[in-house]
Amino acid sequence: MNANTLRQQIAGAAGTIELLVDTPADPPLGVAVLSHPHPLFGGTMDNKVVQTLARAFVQCGWQAVRFNFRGVGASGGQYDEGRGELQDLLSVVAQMAPTGPLALAGFSFGAFVTSHAVAQLAGQRDLRQVVLVGTAASRFEVAPVPPELHEVTLAIHGEADDTVPLSAVMDWARPQSLPVLVIPGGGHFFHGQLPLLKNLIARHLRAG
After folding, report:
1. What is the pLDDT of residues 139-164, one digit of tens each?
2. Rounded Cα distance, 110 and 44, in Å
3. What is the pLDDT of residues 33-79, one digit of tens each?
4. d(CA 191, CA 196)
5. Distance between the two ends of the chain, CA-based, in angstroms?
6. What's the gap between Cα 151 and its chain centre?
7. Is residue 84 within 8 Å of residue 77, measured between CB atoms?
8. Sheet holding 127-133, edge to edge
9. Is 143 left (phi over 0), alpha (psi -120 to 50) or beta?
10. Domains of the chain, with CATH numbers?
11. CA–CA separation, 103 vs 34, rounded Å?
12. How many Cβ atoms from other residues are within 10 Å of residue 95's Cβ?
């Protein structure tokens, strides 16, 4: 992402997990762990939306940790339908953010995996921010957000998303009374709207 991006590797349950770490100039507020889209459809930690998430978090004072799920890039193992990927995410949290303020964010398949990490870590960790972008609610069983985290959660979706229909995300959000921020005309990958996406995420992070 920039000259200060550090590439690292840690040990995970399925082998090596490849990471990219971006750190703000000032001491970070905490660590944000960011999850990428579907591994079988070209999703990696270099995805433009994931990079946008990283930029927004760093701009707002967080250290941003992106990683490749098992079987992607230099990460060992193979695709595991979200189960192993959740373990990858929890391994990154345990090793890169073992204590202190934590934020979790993900895009598409990564938002689905992030939702289950949030459900598992709520009450155990100081979860300050949750950001779910293009949540893959039409394709996977996305976990509900614990009520106590609604105030710090941003669910954001494109109005014209033809990969995950907005209606599917609303069906997931409605029983929780969880607001969804809709970008008018936005597609799944927010082509031409990434600066707007970054600004909306940054606005949420600053408000929190």
Report:
1. 999 999 999 999 999 999 999 999 99
2. 10
3. 999 999 999 999 999 999 999 999 999 999 999 999 999 999 999 99
4. 10
5. 25
6. 17
7. yes
8. 6-12, 15-22, 63-67, 31-35, 102-107, 127-133, 153-158, 181-183
9. beta
10. 6-207 (3.40.50.1820)
11. 9
12. 15
Question: Per residue, what are the HEC states of the chain?
Answer: CCCCCEEEEEEECCEEEEEEEECCCCCCCCEEEEECCCHHHCCCCCCHHHHHHHHHHHHCCCEEEEECCCCCCCCCCCCCCCHHHHHHHHHHHHHHCCCCCEEEEEECHHHHHHHHHHHHHECCECEEEEEEECCCCCCCCCCCCCHHHHHHEEEEEECCCCCCCHHHHHHHHHHHCCCCEEECCCCCCCCCCHHHHHHHHHHHHHHC
Amino acid making up residue 53:
L
Nearest to 74 by CA among 3, 4, 9, 6: 9
The pair of structure tokens assigned to 180 is 């969804």
Maximum CA pair distance of the chain?
44
